[in-house]
Amino acid sequence: MPQPRSIAFICCFLLCATAAAHPSANNTVDILHWWVSEGEENSIGIIQRYIEKQGLGWHAEAVAGSGTYRFSDELRKRVASGNPPMASQAIGYDIRDWARQGKLLNLDNIAEEYQWDEVIPFAIQHLSKYQGHWVGVPINTHSTNWLWVNHAQLTRLGLKQPDTWPDLINMLNTAKASGLIPIAIGREAWEHTLLFESVAAGAGGAEFYRRVFLDLDPTALDMKIIDQIFQRMSMLRNFLDAGAITRNWNQATELVLSGQALLQVQGSWVDGEFNASGLVPGRDYDCYRFPDTQGLVLFNSDQYILFKDHVVEPETRNTFVKTLMDVELQRDLNIATGAAPARVDVPRADFNQCGQQAINDMRAANMRRAMLGSIAMGNANPGPVKNALYKVISDHLMGHISNSQAVSRLAQIISQAPRP
Hints:
420 residues, D-Maltodextrin-Binding Protein, domain 2, 2 domains, five-stranded mixed beta sheet, four-stranded mixed beta sheet, disordered N terminus, SBP
């Protein structure tokens, strides 16, 4: 029969084991995120698995709409009601907006201990920090200047990777003549702006893109280049189908997957969708850089921000942050998401062909300072500028305004924008 001290020890052990099996509210990771498509759900499941392996509880709420008003409004409501999540997915300048309000946890101690400055690309650090302090935890490096192409249709039509703008137009004309949807796209302004930013980077080059859309420098506005960009967007309008005004981005991806469309100009999360469907690059689909943007990485980095006012054990927060930045999590997560990791030191071997190219491109662009924030995803400029650009770009692509009107309105937006 156990002695009293032994009984006390056993009881303590059982209580601790029960607590570990059923984490308390103070030991539970509570997050808000926007990953709702099939590939994205697989990705959030990977984060959950890694967090639960640490003995923490997990509570996640999804609100569709990456970085859009739908998601932002829900987050603002929770914060305003005094019930912020422990952590929320965030991108780009939205991170700075929350930091400016004094709502976010300072992560400098963890960042210094684990040498984030050494392993995270500089362009991402620019958005992860506010006034020199770490406030965001980057989990990936999506890039947006991709063509995602149905391999069977490409082969059937005798086409190959387009290297230049004329190559792309020839490809699209061939697809249209064959009865395919040349470019699959959805109805939302951010999708239209993704197309625009690749066209802009291809037409103007890295320095033009940086000075106009990141630095918001009105002296860099070369009106001939701006006019050429909108002329090219008008050309691409001819390759869209009537269904574009009703579908969302992942429905457009389904059109490419099924062979009803030749290609989609979209971020590397498409690779995650294809991966979730069991497709293999080089056999079922191909990934090419948008013509004339080779060497550039227009990027969007999903990050997590942590709110000061959420009641939780400090160690729970710290474990969550450290786990997100773990090399193995970033490997497994980004094999699923289709992105490159947010760290430059994650091994490439287990990634598919498109994932390995994304990692190679990210590392090279980081060294050359050729990683440039995505306009569409809010990584290039503050929210008011992004939303103003959304309006003019979408109005133009949908044929509501002329080239000259679009040129004038864009120049006005850049000229009137506060300099970063």
